[in-house]
């Protein structure tokens, strides 16, 4: 058939009751595989007793249905026969003969069943008609009384298709009273006796309002309804079980009475899987970030009294839920202290999520901490969980807390006090169970007096303060840590290195270590790489800049520098190095190389001291 003939055939089929509820696109597929057959007058079309392979639709002409000489009646244009061959392979129960020249459209069972398996819209349309025919069974029995047994059999078989479908199928009338529900529907409704009950009673308020609106809009229109549900439907079962579903709704009936078919498919498993995947993906991303930042974890190596006292404080506070504020210079190992607190707490099996408040732009830090909804701001193409939610039942480590924007501090205060927050772009409050450990190298109390940090937030964070001493004040710990690091890098780089001798220990003890443990780690790694014959020449590794000379001079003169004087001395020295290199930080001719510091360490110190390049 040509395209025009196919479309004409589709329009014809839409007028046939059996296919009146089927979408045209599905009928087009049916017509493509069906064929026209011509029968002359008195030609036998169906012989009683033979096994049929399809049904026939009368396009033109007239036929009679009979059993030998007994006449059951006649059928003409638009009517069909032999439809039971679509669902079973039983012998024909009657014969059909052409009363005049007749053209038929033969629909083969094999193609019909293929559409049943592959086309959901085709199934829904056929089911709607068959249910209508079920409701009008008395009329059908009056017209074809002799076919009563076959109709009952067809209804039974098609009911089986509905009954054992995996999707929930619920049919209800214009008053929302359920007239039919299959086993899947009864399972989500948690009720085996739902007939004549109001379907709205099984829906939450939002879903019930949606269904009422759809039915109301349809009632005001003369058109039939066959559409996907615009939103999910939340079903609340008789035992308070809740399921979230997507689906379709269609209507059938006449001006006097209308019925609706609601087909639902649960998406709870999919939602749970998507959430699980999203959470695992985000946790993996954060863990990968952590692994990139941490070359290795040496633990806390300590013999000095100040560090032994610190370890005692960790043991005291770890089992509690108290908020901890760790203070110390850059590179002293504040994160190691935070990890030790987490690992020795009852949250050790939960996540520990770290965020550097000074490393994230101010316009993104709120989203990083608390998450955002899709469309909350430009570029927010998907919803995202924040790190507080990822740290639920665990610990969140807020490094460089002094850099947290002032306008965001009340939101953090709310989390500490109430354990709740709102994601960016959301009005829904989320509860979270998180222990907070914060760290800073800045004087937060002084900042609060200057109006740069909320005083109430400082006191909420400073429940249990821990001071991490700088490496220069830890005596022989520098040598213990260096030995451990040398052993580690020696193994990882496959370069045998001898242990520190007394002269080398003296060199390490005399150096000021402005970059603390982080500087020691970087210098040890460099020392192992450039070592010769298992020996390290520390005089070529340790920085010997003007900074070292200047710090040694007053000590020789008997003057002991205060901590404030040391910081000022370091600040002046960094400023001189920056001026000499024209404010170039990294590279072989940069200030970091001149000072013997990693460029990242120098960048942190420039930020901490508030040094800015003059315009």
UniProtKB/TrEMBL annotation:
SMART domains: AAA (SM00382), cNMP (SM00100). PROSITE patterns: CNMP_BINDING_1 (PS00888), CNMP_BINDING_3 (PS50042), SIGMA54_INTERACT_1 (PS00675), SIGMA54_INTERACT_2 (PS00676), SIGMA54_INTERACT_3 (PS00688), SIGMA54_INTERACT_4 (PS50045). InterPro entries: AAA+_ATPase, AAA_lid_NorR, cNMP-bd_CS, cNMP-bd_dom, cNMP-bd_dom_sf, P-loop_NTPase, PAS, PAS-like_dom_sf. SUPFAM superfamilies: cAMP-binding domain-like, P-loop containing nucleoside triphosphate hydrolases, PYP-like sensor domain (PAS domain). One of its GO terms (biological process) is regulation of DNA-templated transcription. Residues 18-116 form the Cyclic nucleotide-binding domain. PANTHER family: C4-DICARBOXYLATE TRANSPORT TRANSCRIPTIONAL REGULATORY PROTEIN DCTD, TRANSCRIPTIONAL REGULATORY PROTEIN. This is Cyclic nucleotide-binding domain-containing protein. It comes from Flagellimonas pelagia.
């Amino acid at each position: 058939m040509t395209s025009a003939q196919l479309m004409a055939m589709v329009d014809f089929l839409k007028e046939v009751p059996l296919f009146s509820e089927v979408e045209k696109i599905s009928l087009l597929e049916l017509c493509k595989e069906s064929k026209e057959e011509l029968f002359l007058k008195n030609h036998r079309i169906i012989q009683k007793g033979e096994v049929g392979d399809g049904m026939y639709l009368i396009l033109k002409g007239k036929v009679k249905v009979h059993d030998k000489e007994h006449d059951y009646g006649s059928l003409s244009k638009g009517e069909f026969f032999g439809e039971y061959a679509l669902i079973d392979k039983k012998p024909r129960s009657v014969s059909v003969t052409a009363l005049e020249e007749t053209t038929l459209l033969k629909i083969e069972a094999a193609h019909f069943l293929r559409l049943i398996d592959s086309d959901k819209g085709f199934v829904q349309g056929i089911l709607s008609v068959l249910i209508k025919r079920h409701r009008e069974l008395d009329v059908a029995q009056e017209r074809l009384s002799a076919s009563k047994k076959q109709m009952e059999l067809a209804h039974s078989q098609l009911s089986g298709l509905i009954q054992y479908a995996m999707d929930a199928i619920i049919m209800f009338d214009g008053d929302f009273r359920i007239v039919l529900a299959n086993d899947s529907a009864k399972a989500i409704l948690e009720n085996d006796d739902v007939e004549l009950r109001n379907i709205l009673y099984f829906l939450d308020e939002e879903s019930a309002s949606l269904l009422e609106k759809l039915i109301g809009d349809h009632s005001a229109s003369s058109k039939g309804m066959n559409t996907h549900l615009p939103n999910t439907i939340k079903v609340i079962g008789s035992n308070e079980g809740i399921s979230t579903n997507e689906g379709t709704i269609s209507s059938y009936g006449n001006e006097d009475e209308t019925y609706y078919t609601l087909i639902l498919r649960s998406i709870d498993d999919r939602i749970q899987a998507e959430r699980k995947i999203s959470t695992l993906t985000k946790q993996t991303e954060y863990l990968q970030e952590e692994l990139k930042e941490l070359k290795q974890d040496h633990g806390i190596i300590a013999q000095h009294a100040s560090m032994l006292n610190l370890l005692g404080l960790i043991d005291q506070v770890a089992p509690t839920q108290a908020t901890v504020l760790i203070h110390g210079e850059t590179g002293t190992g504040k994160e190691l202290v935070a990890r030790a607190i987490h690992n020795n707490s009852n949250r050790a099996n939960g996540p520990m999520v770290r965020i550097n408040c000074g490393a994230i732009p101010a316009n993104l830090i709120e989203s990083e901490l608390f998450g955002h909804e899709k469309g909350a701001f430009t570029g927010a193409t998907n919803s995202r969980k924040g790190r507080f939610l990822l740290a639920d039942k665990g610990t969140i480590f807020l490094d460089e807390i002094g850099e947290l924007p002032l306008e965001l501090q009340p939101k953090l205060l709310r989390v500490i006090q109430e354990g709740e927050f709102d994601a960016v772009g959301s009005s829904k409050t989320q509860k979270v169970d998180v222990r907070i450990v914060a760290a800073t190298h800045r004087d937060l109390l002084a900042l609060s007096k200057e109006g740069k940090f909320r005083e109430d937030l400082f006191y909420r964070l400073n429940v249990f303060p821990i001071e991490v001493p700088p490496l220069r004040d830890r005596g022989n710990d520098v040598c213990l840590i260096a030995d451990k690091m040398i052993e580690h890098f020696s193994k990882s780089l496959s370069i045998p290195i001898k242990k520190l001798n007394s002269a080398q220990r003296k060199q390490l003890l005399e150096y000021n270590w402005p970059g603390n443990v982080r500087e020691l780690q970087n210098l040890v790694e460099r020392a192992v790489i450039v070592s010769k014959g298992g020996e390290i020449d520390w005089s070529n590794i340790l920085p010997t800049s003007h900074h070292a000379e200047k710090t040694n001079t007053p000590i020789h003169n008997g003057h002991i520098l205060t901590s404030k004087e040391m910081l000022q001395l370091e600040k002046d020295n960094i400023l001189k190095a920056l001026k000499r290199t024209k404010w170039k930080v990294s590279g072989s001719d940069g200030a970091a190389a001149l000072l013997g510091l990693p460029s990242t360490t120098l960048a942190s110190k420039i930020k901490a001291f508030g040094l800015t390049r003059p315009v």
